[in-house]
Design a protein that fits this description.
Elements (H helix, E strand, L loop, with lengths): L2 H19 L2 E2 L4 E2 L4 H10 L1 H20 L5 H21 L6 H30 L7 H32 L5
Antiparallel strand pairs: 1-2
Helix pairs in contact: 1-2, 1-3, 2-3, 2-4, 2-6, 3-4, 4-5, 5-6
Length: about 170
């Protein structure tokens, strides 16, 4: 790993944490673009880097927001999975994805992460002991939110990847 790549990952982690705090939390879902750096780094360098950005970024976010809890690791898993899915797909396609391929992998990763976050949310409630009402409506709203977020991230991510590559920081 070269210094530029390591620096890009570090900036991705910092951006992840910043975007985590700039999210809008509603009753049943959270509108956040914190996954943007995971996607960009995964598209640039693959799954190991994407998982590092997601895992370290989410772990630090969890520590700063909630402290170390019995479920901290569970909350880190979805960010790791996003980096894994997007990164493996990018690697398999030689890091040269069309807009359609980018849209598909961002959408698939978003839906998988939303399902995983829903399971973690339920597990967190069971382990920590707070009440949670899972209604069909709230789950549907979470997936609608995921699709909208994926569309926005698909529109922005390829441009960010191209800019980083042009700057020279995106060299593998």
């Amino acid at each position: 790993m070269n210094a530029r790549r390591l620096t890009t990952n570090a900036v991705g982690i910092a951006l992840f944490i910043l975007l985590s705090y700039l999210s809008v939390e509603l009753v049943v879902f959270k509108l956040s673009f914190a996954s943007f750096p995971i996607i960009v780094v995964s598209l640039l360098f693959g799954c190991v880097d994407g998982m590092a950005v997601g895992g370290v970024g989410e772990f630090i976010h969890q520590l700063l927001t909630y402290g170390l809890t019995p479920t901290t690791v569970l909350w880190v898993l979805p960010a790791l999975v996003r980096g894994l899915i997007v990164g493996l797909y990018a690697q398999r396609h030689g890091f040269a994805l069309s807009l359609k391929q980018t849209a598909v992998i961002v959408l698939v990763s978003s839906l998988v992460v939303t399902a995983l976050n829903t399971v973690v949310w339920y597990a967190d409630a069971a382990i920590v002991g707070y009440p949670i009402e899972f209604t069909f409506v709230s789950i549907v709203l979470r997936f609608v939110n995921s699709i909208v977020t994926a569309a926005i991230l698909t529109a922005v991510s390829p441009q960010a990847v191209n800019l980083i590559r042009k700057s020279g920081a995106g060299k593998r």
